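Team,

Forwarding the record for the chain on the shared tracking sheet. I've put the sequence and predicted structure together so nobody has to dig through attachments.
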Amino acid sequence: MPAEIDIYGVYVPSLLALMGITLALSLGLRRLLARFGVYAYVWHRGLFDLAVYVLLLGAVSFLAEWFYA
């Protein structure tokens, strides 16, 4: 995977781009979890959201590495 991504002449670290993609996925997943009432069974919503974000970031970076390999 390239270290930087060129966006109209501006070099952006690839991890920052992956974090943006993960943020969009995380926001969508949070809406789904709230709609189905999953947060009623979660002790600390902020920690749960952080854990889900970290798991999604790992999955997105794994898939990006697999895609570029």
